[in-house]
Amino acid sequence: MAVNRTNLTSNGFAGNQVLYSSRNFWSGLLFGIGLIAFMDEVFFHQLLQWHHFYDLATTRIGILSDGLLNSFAWFAAIFSLFMLSDLRRRNALWPVKWTGAAFLGAGSFQLFDGLIHHKVLNLHQIRYGVDILPYDLVWNISAVIFIAIGLFILSQTRIAKRKKAGNSHA
Amino acid sequence: MHDNHALMDSGGFLPLFLLIALLGISPYLAAVYFSNQKYRNWPLQRIVFWSFGIISATAALVGPLAEQAHVDFRMHMAVHLLLGMLAPLLIAMSCPMTLLLRTLNISAARTVMAVLKNPPFRLINHPVTAALLNIGGLYVLYLTSLYHLMHESAFLYAVIHLHIFLAGYLFTVSIVYFDVTPHRFSFLYRSIVLIVALAGHKILAKTLYATPPEGVPRTEAEAGSMLMYYGGDLIDAVLIFYLCWHWYKSTAKREPSFIK
């Protein structure tokens, strides 16, 4: 962490947020990844049954990449919530920063899934027996919007962080 | 279903089932009883974990499920989940090594610890070795003709099922430190091994969906591999939960300098 710990001891809550700034970021980011992967499974695989568990077009590298990513997301969903409780316990939760990072994580996973998995590796398509283009567009554009929202929120917290760190010097 | 009559005929399995379960549970109860004379009472939930661990392992080996597993890949997968994942998890959670050490006298307990610290034990208790034995063993079983051969030979069947249980147990205790663990690895290290091993399990499940093992009909392979995939997710979620829970408890001690 870039901030000097000794300058923050008198700054209480805001000081904790800055001190654990990067843990807020990682917890949010991992939660976003875990949540979107979980929603993908629940909505697109189980409820709508648009996605297929396996279709014959899937490449070996597609199965490999899907396995690694979903296994990571499963871990991320659980670990990020333990990080969240840890931040609360330390009185260091920074909800805005956490939310921004969650949007960034969710959008990045969605974009990776939409471009690399669906298109490059042919893992499975969003839906079968329909014109796929509108689905792909909605999927990937919404992913980009999530990323943009996340980056915007994070840039705001960066300004706030400078202020908070500055206050503690005064 | 291939043979419903097998299910009917196996009504007589119950005495054998109870006998084996009892044989598995009673040494643990005896150890609890004797060590409770010397130390504070052993937690009740650990006795429950051990009992359910033994029961799920027994259910995988004796009775209708075990019989069906010989002919039906879906049932084989249920056996695999019970014997290779659920039973090891429950048994690890019951902390049998801690119980053993507090039941033995001090010099015997020291000998046990010395054995556990031996290089061969440390090697198989290493998270990477344990993951390879566990997940790698499954690749060998399903992607070679071993799965087919296993159903031809009772000896192979016994050895492979023993391996499935032991490797599952070894993997569980090498990743999550429920019990006495002489040589420890960092949270990050074990997390990475767990993620890669879980990925290996998922990849194998999808591979089996695409290319069934020798002699397994396609519909059975599809249902069986999905059971493997989602059942594995469920049990691994418990592993991940406890791994993270231990991190949560230890990180408070490690970084106490936060501002209140």
Automatic annotation (TrEMBL), chain A:
Keywords linked to the UniProt accession: Membrane, Transmembrane, Transmembrane helix
Membrane-spanning segments: 25-47, 67-84, 96-117, 137-154
Keyword Acetylation found: no
Protein name: DUF2243 domain-containing protein
From TrEMBL, chain B:
Membrane topology, as annotated: Multi-pass membrane protein
Keyword Transmembrane helix included in the entry's annotation: yes
Keyword set includes Transmembrane helix: yes
Subcellular location: Cell membrane
Highest taxon in the source lineage: Bacteria
Record's keyword terms, sorted: Cell membrane, Membrane, Transmembrane, Transmembrane helix
A Pfam family hit: Caa3_CtaG
Segments crossing the lipid bilayer: 12-35, 47-66, 78-102, 123-142, 154-180, 187-209, 229-248
InterPro entries with a match to the protein in the record: Caa3_assmbl_CtaG-rel
GO cellular component term of the entry, any: plasma membrane
Name of the protein in its database record: Cytochrome c oxidase assembly protein
